[in-house]
Amino acid sequence: MIQLELVAESANLAVNAVARHAVDRSKLALVWESLSGTRQSFTFFDIERLSNRIANVLTDLDTGKGDRIFVLLNRTPELYSIIPAILKVGAAVGVLFTDFGREAIRQRLEDSGARIVITDGANVHKIKAICENLPSLEHILVVGETGEKVVAKVQIHDFHQLVNVAKPDFTVIEVSPDDNCFLIYTSGTTGLPKGVVHRHAISERLMATARDVLQLENTDFYWCTADVGWVTGLCYGIFAPWLLGLPFLIYEGEFDSQRWLDVLEKHQVTCWYITPTLLRLMRNEIGDITRKRDFALDRIYSVGEPLNPEVISWATRIFDAPVFDNYWQTETGSHIIANRPNIRVLRGSMGKAVDGVEVAIIDNSGREVANNIVGDIAIYPSLSSMFKGYWNFPEATRACFRNGWYITKDRGRRDDDGYFWFVARNDDVITCEAQRIGPFEVENALLSHPSIAESAAIGVSDALTTEHVKAFIVLRKEFEPSLQLALEIANHVKSQLSPLATPREIEFCDSLPTTRSGKIQRDVLRRQGEIDGARVFVIG
Predict the structure, then answer these.
(1) How far is it, in rounded angstroms, from Cα 383 to Cα 357?
(2) Are 296 and 319 in contact (CB under 8 A)?
(3) Which of 329, 350, 521, 339 is nearest to 407 (CA)?
């Protein structure tokens, strides 16, 4: 186990993640591979010097402690120096997904009061189009072609032109552990996105879980596939390994099953962090790998939604490595429940509470319930990684707590051995004949049928039973929709679960709506009803 403690002299996350390791000028921090296969390697010293230059540029633009600076970039090498640079000047980092449209970007920039956005030539037009609606925005830094230099009083700068002449030395702004470091917007099923505020104190839990859950060692080469716009990509894609002084891989491209297999093999990745949705897509697209691959994988971690046992079995067989599911939220900032190598893994379980985290199942009054009783999954909010609150939204922050516990809005149960079992999101539970059915158990049963690649289950209003189960199914390539197959699938679920959990409607579709982090958007399925072009069969 890596024996490393946080720097006592500084609470700044950038010091603990980058500056301290840059003393060794040859220490590898990042390997970046382009779409064309070109590889670039960067040391912590490289990241330190470039982030210092960027910090000097930001300081010259009169930004500093308390400001919010947003990044809208693809997976370019510059991104991984820009983020620590923002922290070095004492500002909070916000990261935007590059596939966001103008309105999604406007909402986040307006709500946050961001003064600076750093983007690239492919995305700057989105910011220019909304400048007039962003009174707090003063500067746009563009990695690439800038075009106009001023739009609606907003100054537009050539990023490299400024950075190349900036000094490579910078005195990091002092912060307290309670000062803001991240502003991460998260969407619920209702209302506008809310900005989750995290503190520099998050470094303690990210380091602890990198060591205890991911169990990263000096011999590991790590790849987290999550976009930096998602909390996993920011916290565990960058800072968790860097806090331990370990390098990681970044692949520029989006999901591509065959290319990802090549990347895993070429770079001899030992620890891989991925979403269940992408594992399911790989299973559907590649099936059993036909040629022998020389993987170096030692363990695979999955996050974003519960991992189905069939996918775990497939991935374990294909990659010859165990798969560990884990659970946390944007608001908790770090792992809270996890399967990991040092505990016995029960297929389908979320795992056990992570060391140092107090997890409970509570009732509507905020009292803990007995083992094996379903209730709300709750966290005692003493974690250093727990969010400070929602930006400019104190009433929403207060609504997250019940009798001193942070409520995850997920329902589950804890068994007699301390393992937690996911049931459903509070708003996803299906009520049929006064019984509550978790969509995840229905989806698990569906995925155990050989024809099914992906599935989602929702409740549909029913005059007799309150609700009945409707299943949305993406078939594997070799199967075609038919009434006979729908009946076969329904009977399969009935034999696995119960008559009430059996889908009475089955909709075959080409894809399911998911968030960027890979979570199935059941709320979207409930709102839109049938998917365009889908074939629907009503059973019983």
Answers:
(1) 7
(2) no
(3) 329
As a whole-number percent, the residues of the chain with pLDDT over 70 amount to: 97
Mean pLDDT for the stretch of residues 476-502: 92
**Residue 249: in which H helix or E strand, if any?**
strand 248-251
Better-scored residue on pLDDT, 347 or 397 = 397
- Mean pLDDT for all residues in the chain: 93
d(CA 115, CA 167): 23
Q: Which tokens belong to 530?
A: 């049938």
At residue 430, does pLDDT exceed 90?
no
Pairing, β 452-462 against β 466-475: antiparallel
In order of start, what are the domains of the chain with their CATH numbers? 42-175 (3.40.50.980), 202-425 (3.40.50.12780), 430-538 (3.30.300.30)
Q: Tell me the C-alpha distance between 114 and 105, whole Å.
A: 11
Q: Which two tokens stand for residue 235?
A: 């916290």
Q: Terminal CA-to-CA distance of the chain, rounded, Å?
A: 57
Cβ atoms of 10 and 176 within 8 Å: the answer is: no
93 neighbors 179 (Cβ within 8 angstroms) = no
pLDDT digits (tens, 9 = 90+) for 416-427: 999 999 988 777
Extract the tokens encoding 514: 């998911």
User: What are the beta bridge partners of residue 274?
Assistant: 302
Inter-helix orientation angle 439-447/483-496, to 10°: 120
Check if the beta carbon of residue 207 is closer than 8 Å to that of residue 4.
yes
Beta strands in 329-484 (DSSP E): 337-338, 352-353, 359-362, 375-379, 389-390, 401-402, 405-414, 420-425, 430-432, 435-437, 452-462, 466-475
- 475 has which bridge partners? 452
Three-state secondary structure of 113-150: CCCEEEEECCCHHHHHCCHHHCCCCCEEEEECCCCCCE
Distance (Å, rounded) from C-alpha 234 to C-alpha 250? 12
* Residue pointed to by tokens 């620890």: 271
**What type of residue is 353?**
A
Whether the predicted pLDDT of 14 surpasses 80: yes
Strand pairing class (92-95; 68-72): parallel
Distance CA 260, CA 25 (A): 30
